[in-house]
TrEMBL record:
This is Uncharacterized protein. It comes from Rhodotorula paludigena.
Length: 249
């Protein structure tokens, strides 16, 4: 693991946000782009901004993949989005390695290819087998497996991939966890801070597994970690005096 979030049961001390190994990032010349897009000369940043503005997830029509016997590639039929939204290009079959959960989602492959080097091959939509009949208002999308280490905080990173908003990511990282009515009375400030630190850690691990090199992403994670560590140290320093004030005389 890259680092461990402090917990109330262990000695509290200043914890530095772990340095990330040098990541190369994405270069357009290494991607297989559609001919029209390649000729346009659009920069990576321009393409990413345009895709984020149109980002959406289409509905899958079936969970049963069709396997092309000539290529052994799996395809799933997907409902076409309403115009003028562009159609998705792939189905991500996401497996979470910290448990048994998985789900499938239709995506724009180029949006992921521009941000995640291990998914650079998603820059073009694979050809649909000629043996598959066309179906009105639907299209066949290739299935790509994606292993993600941490399930609990994945929605934060998934949303960031689509909106690229450091402010929204920071808000999600710092937001106090929602406690059920049965546990809210017992939840301490230390518990809440430790859960949020674990949240930052999980997003770090997921982003590192995708080799994301976006500086804004890593600066936001580092900022959230620093804020929570400062709050944690303040809370730890306050607890002894708080306990002394409630001791019977």
């Amino acid at each position: 693991m890259p680092f461990n979030a402090p917990t109330p049961n262990q000695e509290q001390r200043a914890s530095l946000f772990p340095p990330l190994h040098q990541l190369d990032g994405i270069r357009l010349e290494y991607l297989e782009l559609d001919a029209e897009l390649a000729k346009s000369g659009a920069t990576l940043q321009f393409q990413l901004a345009a895709l984020r503005g149109l980002g959406h997830e289409a509905s899958l029509l079936t969970d049963d993949p069709f396997v092309d016997p000539t290529s052994s590639r799996s395809f799933i039929r997907c409902k076409l989005p309403s115009p003028p939204l562009p159609p998705p290009t792939h189905v991500l079959d996401i497996h979470f390695t910290d448990g048994s959960e998985r789900y499938r989602v239709a995506v724009h492959g180029l949006l992921w290819a521009l941000q995640c080097p291990p998914l650079s091959h998603l820059s073009q939509r694979p050809e649909v087998p000629a043996s598959v009949p066309e179906c009105e208002n639907s299209l066949l999308l290739a299935v790509e497996r994606l292993d993600i280490p941490c399930r609990p905080s994945w929605p934060l990173l998934h949303r960031y991939i689509y909106d690229g908003s450091p402010a929204a990511l920071l808000e999600g990282l710092l937001k106090a966890p929602t406690a059920s009515p049965l546990t809210s009375a017992k939840q301490t400030a230390l518990d809440s801070l430790s859960m949020r630190l674990a949240r930052v850690r999980e997003v770090w691990i997921d982003a590192a597994s995708l080799e994301m090199s976006d500086p804004s992403l890593w600066k936001t994670l580092e900022r959230a970690w620093a804020v929570l560590i400062a709050d944690l140290q303040e809370e730890v320093a306050r607890e002894p005096s708080s306990r002394e004030g409630h001791e019977p005389v």
